[in-house]
Amino acid sequence: MEDKTILDRITALVDEEHRLRENPAAPEANAERLRSVAEQLDQCWDLLRQRRAKREFGADPESATPRDVGTVENYTN
To answer: Burial of 44 by CB count in 10 Å (0-12 exposed, 13-18 middle, 19+ buried)?
Structure first.
């Protein structure tokens, strides 16, 4: 997977998030999807950061792997 593929996915998710937030007709129906989109965004950003860090330190960015939602969502600095 290339960085561009991840960035394209991030863009699509952000666009979807904006559409969901702009639709006041069904906030309850959108809540679950918004949560899912936010989690997917966090996973994409995490994967992109992993790839960039590996590249910066001379490792193969292709060895970066997506982490599960629990890991990404509960990460602290």
So the answer is: buried
